[in-house]
Amino acid sequence: MKILTVVGARPQFIKVAPVSLAIAAVPGVSEVLVHTGQHFDANMSDVFFDELGIAAPRYNLGIGGGTHGQNTGRMIEGLERLMIEEKPDWVLVYGDTDSTLAGALAAVKLHVRVAHVEAGLRSYNMVMPEEVNRRVTDHVSTLLFTPSAHASTILRGEGIADDRVLNVGDVMYDAARLFGGRATQRSELLARFGVTAGDYVLATIHRQENTDDPVRLAAIFDALGRSGRPIVLPLHPRTRNSLARAAITPAANIVVTEPLGYLDMNALESAAALIATDSGGVQKEAYFHRVPCITLRDETEWVELIDLGWNRLARPGADDLAAILQSSPARGRDDVMPYGDGAAAVKIVDALVERTR
Ligand code: UDP
């Protein structure tokens, strides 16, 4: 059995790591890894392959830097060619990026079965490119692997047949369990940023709705500055460009750093007093480390974390972000675990094998 896996962006390298390991452990199953090139900087791509032991991609399409339409179109063309050549039994796609959508569309048109990891997430905000990508991908997939019971319920509500939806748990939880323990020397890392464990905010900002709206971006950076708290901010390249364009200079309490590797990032997450982010993955990792989180968005797909009390929304431009950042956040409930048992990857591979027979 052959699986052709499509990845392209940072969160996908993290999600693919446990699944690739699980595929490699099954005799007779091979994986062809295709990198679309969407994220190409060493610190947005290579570092994850090195740290998480992911095999080098068999193909790299080198596609990035264009508009959503340009990138998606070029990816579909490149992926279609590879799928015709490689004749996979399954195309495996992750999450909600343009690479996900391109992989799914190329495959379904060739009548190759598509399996979507992290299916069933919804923000109900079609302005987000991610929402469009995930909705279309879900509806052309043969098999939909959801991270939670809630995501499965959403898919059923959209009319997707029960036997195509499998709640396997969240592969990012698998990754946290597999690789989190390997984290870097925390004390050295904190010293590098001049912060003390339990006394700083870790922030990440990269969603288009925040970076491409100068008013929201200014509101976020104004609040981070006015909070007066020590803040470490690993800066996404898109946000770096937007800050330059909007002529916003982060205040002195914000330690700005290049994007970090997974191990450093998780070490910093685990020692933070509070995490402030618009990232999907970082919201969940905050919870995996049991660190309170505020989400700098108008809505979140990871509603379980709000329900459990570990996360709260802080809407840029609408809520008083500075006051929320200054308040001592409550810890959430700890009696239920909504994202599975850390064995999502094995369940995914088992299901693919099972359904190929
Ligand atoms: N991440 C990282 N270095 C950073 C920022 C994030 O390794 O400087 C990791 C983070 O730990 C998580 C993933 O990237 O595993 C989340 O990806 P991202 O925020 O880019 O995308 P999203 O999850 O919002 O799709």
The percent of residues in helical segments reads: 40-55%
From the spread of the alpha carbons, the general shape counts as globular
Q: What is the CATH topology descriptor of the largest domain?
A: Rossmann fold
Quantity of strands, as a count: 13
CATH architecture of the largest domain: 3-Layer(aba) Sandwich
Strand order of the largest sheet: 3-2-1-4-5-6-7
* Class inferred from helices and paired strands: alpha/beta
Largest sheet: 7 strands, parallel
Number of domains: 2
| H/I helix tally | 16
Unreliable spans: none
Please provide a brief summary of the model.
The protein has 357 residues and is of the alpha/beta class.
Descriptive account of the structure:
There is one protein chain. It is built from 16 helices and 13 strands. With 357 residues, the protein is of the alpha/beta class. It folds into two domains: 186 residues, Glycogen Phosphorylase B (Rossmann fold, 3-Layer(aba) Sandwich), CATH 3.40.50.2000; 145 residues, Glycogen Phosphorylase B (Rossmann fold, 3-Layer(aba) Sandwich), CATH 3.40.50.2000. Helix 1 packs across helix 16 and helix 3 packs across helix 4. The chain is globular and about 60 Å long. It binds uridine-5'-diphosphate (UDP). Uridine-5'-diphosphate binds next to helix 1, helix 12 and helix 13.
